[in-house]
Amino acid sequence: MKNGNVPLDGDALKIESEDLPLFGNFPHIKQLMGGRELIHNEKRYVLWLVGISPSEIHKNSKVVERVRLCRDNRLKMKDKGTQKLAETPTTFRDTNNPEKYIALPMVSSENRKYIPMAYLNSDVIPTNQIQTIPDATLYHFGVLTSRVHMAWVRTVAGRLETRYRYSKDIVYNNFVWPSVNEKQKSKIESTAKKILEAREKFPDSSLADLYDPLTMPEELLKAHRENDAAVCEAYGFSKDISEEEIVSALMSLYERFSNS
Questions:
Q1: DSSP states of 194-213 as a string?
Q2: Of 34, 32, 33, which is closest to residue 20 (Cα–Cα)?
Q3: Are the C-beta atoms of residues 192 and 141 closer than 8 Å to each other?
Q4: Residue 107: left if φ>0, alpha if ψ -120 to 50, beta else—which one?
Q5: CA of 240: how far to CAs of 144, 192, 243, in Å?
Q6: Model pLDDT, residue 260
Q7: Per-residue confidence band for 160, with pLDDT thresholds at 50, 70 and 90
């Protein structure tokens, strides 16, 4: 798991939906995804100029204007490291752009049964408000969106007010994955795929809509329950195991692996 990109641009390289037409048909604009955009399906964009030639940048006066603004914003900041970034005003501080990845919001409501996460590709740039898992498979998605992983999150994650604050160092890196055979792995991949297929039946709904306990569709809830059962089976847990028992078992596994 990796953090998304830290911009440090003073919003100069970011583009709101209503401003998109100002840039004409400039080809180097990608969707920008932070936690709020991911969960609420809000659209924002970014000038993604990594590896783009100066001559191509200069063809669009609005792009040049934004690059100049990014430089000026950085020079005004107090941090010396950020001021140094004024030498490279065409890019965010970080330039991670994985081909495909799981995106997981850093902050999520405690009222949701599952933290909403999604598969994204290189057309979408992650900010530091989401965590990313590059090249993750359906198997990884299935385990992370299971009640087993959520029991771990509810126990060890920090809080922002009452919301979960997901940390790669505290939550993800200390989570013990199951030792699976090919049959178990394939089953989790299948149930994870069903979750994504259930979501696709509601293209007008955001992840916030889909994972609201009041409005979560029956098809999606059923798919999650099947996935929960497959993940529990992979750990050797009974399908009706309590959350307290899950946490106790995961802690035992953690102690065993950390002392080995």
A1: HHHHHHHT-TT--HHHHT-T
A2: 32
A3: yes
A4: beta
A5: 19, 19, 9
A6: 67
A7: confident
Give residue-wise pLDDT tens across range 179-207: 999 999 999 999 999 999 999 999 999 99
Give the pair of three-digit tokens for residue 105.
């919001």
Q: Is the pLDDT of residue 114 over 80?
A: yes
Is the CA virtual torsion 145, 248, 181, 226 positive or negative? Answer: negative
Question: What are the structure tokens assigned to 41, written together?
Answer: 């399906």
Amino acid occupying residue 170: I
Please name the residue that has the structure tokens 């959350």.
243
At 47, list the tokens: 């000038």
From CA 180, how far away is CA 235, in angstroms rounded? 8
Global pTM value: 0.91
Residue 48 predicted with pLDDT over 80: yes
In the structure, what pLDDT confidence band is assigned to residue 161 with cuts at 50, 70 and 90?
confident
Give mean pLDDT, residues 243-248.
Answer: 96
Q: 148-151 contacts: CB < 8 A, separation 24 or more?
A: 148/228, 148/231, 148/232, 148/235, 148/237, 148/246, 148/250, 149/175, 149/231, 150/113, 150/114, 150/115, 151/243, 151/246, 151/247, 151/250
Alpha-carbon distance of 11 to 91, in angstroms, equals 12
Token code pair at residue 131: 């965590």
CB count within 10 Å of CB 33 equals: 25
